[in-house]
Amino acid sequence: MQVRSFIVILSCFSFISYSAEKADVVDDSIYTLKLMLASSYQQFATRENVYYGVAAVPSLWHSFDHDARYTALFKQKKIRKHEELISDMGIVLTFPVIPIVSYSLSRQLDDNKLFNFALEYTSSVYLTLAESALISFVQIHERPDQSDLSPWETKFRGDSSFPSGHVVPYATLLFKTFQFYGPWTLLPTGTMFYFASKERIKSGKHTMSDVVGSFFLAAFASEGVRKANHYKDNHPFYKWIWQHDVAVGVTYYHSVIGPRLTWYF
Predict the structure, then answer these.
(1) How much of the chain, in percent, has pLDDT values that exceed 70?
(2) Who contacts 238 (Cβ-Cβ below 8 Å, separation ≥6)?
(3) Do 146 and 208 touch, CB atoms closer than 8 A?
(4) Is 100:16 a contact under the CB 8 Å cutoff?
(5) Per residue, what are the HEC states of the chain?
(6) All domains of the chain, ordered by start, with CATH?
(7) pTM score, whole prediction
(8) Do the beta carbons of residue 128 and residue 218 sit within 8 Å?
(9) CB-side neighbour CA atoms (13 Å) of 8
């Protein structure tokens, strides 16, 4: 796996060398960093994140309350090969591969939408990872299984397993592809996030609340980056959802409280 990952990364860096002749990679990299810094505080001033927050509170409340039950349930089943593969490849595919390939293609094809996707995805994923690393220094709970931890799981974060950094790339990919390319992308990206999350829980490296926390953390960062970038040509379905008036409330089902979002058309 390490050899194949190295080959993929090396190929991507070779691929970007062609586009570097036509684009100022340094300036674009600096802008991406500025975008990440600006969105670190602008994410708290977006209306969309209010709605995500309404959904996040009861979801995390439920997850924390039932972490032990979910862990026991998932660990009864063995980790399947495709789950392990998707979980392992998330780091490689979504850190160097997707940002580099999408950026290179956008420059070669002169595709402004793909260019902004590359910048926003890169900013979002690294902002979310930085935030998840900082939060992990707050001791919320330890990993269910602390054996066989990789350097990725120990050297770049605190002792708390909350939130999961491993599923961040897939969660961010889900939100950004939906924003730029529409709802059809939710199926493949959602499936990859689901399998990666299952592997993390089955292996005992994370709990349900860890992956749920990462999901909403990625949502907050994604919206913050969108606001900071001021890109307007998003997918019509994405704009259709957020450009209508939405009422936030609560609902009850079998004595369980939950969020209620009502769209007015």
Answers:
(1) 79
(2) 178, 179, 180, 182
(3) no
(4) yes
(5) CHHHHHHHHHHHHHHHHHHCCCCCHHHHHHHHHHHHHHHHHHHHHCHHHHHHHHHHHHHHHHHHHCHHHHHHHHHCCCCCHHHHHHHHHHHHHHHHHHHHHHHHHHHHHCCHHHHHHHHHHHHHHHHHHHHHHHHCCCCCCCCCCCCCCCHHHHCCCCCCCCCCCCCHHHHHHHHHHHHHHCHHHHHHHHHHHHHHHHHHHHCCCCCHHHHHHHHHHHHHHHHHHHHHHCCCCCCHHHHHHHCCEEEEEEEEECCEEEEEEEEEC
(6) 2-232 (1.20.144)
(7) 0.83
(8) yes
(9) 17
The length of the chain in residues reads 265
Q: What are the residues whose beta carbons fall under 8 Å from the beta carbon of 55, sequence distance 6 or more? A: 216, 259, 261
Percent of the chain with pLDDT strictly greater than 90:
37
**Residue 246 forms beta bridges with which residues?**
263
pLDDT tens for residues 124-169? 999 999 999 899 888 888 887 666 666 666 666 777 888 888 899 9
**259: which residues sit within 8 A by CB, 6+ positions away?**
54, 55, 57, 58, 248, 249, 250, 251
Residue 104: how many CB atoms within 10 A of its CB? 23
Q: Are the C-beta atoms of residues 231 and 182 closer than 8 Å to each other?
A: no
Whether residue 206 has pLDDT greater than 70: yes
CA–CA separation, 179 and 111 (whole Å): 16
Other CB atoms closer than 10 Å to residue 128's CB: what's the count?
27
Tokens of 171: 């969660």
Burial of 242 by CB count in 10 Å (0-12 exposed, 13-18 middle, 19+ buried)? middle
Q: Which residue has the higher pLDDT, 184 or 84?
A: 184
Residues paired with residue 252 on neighbouring β-strands, in sequence order: 257
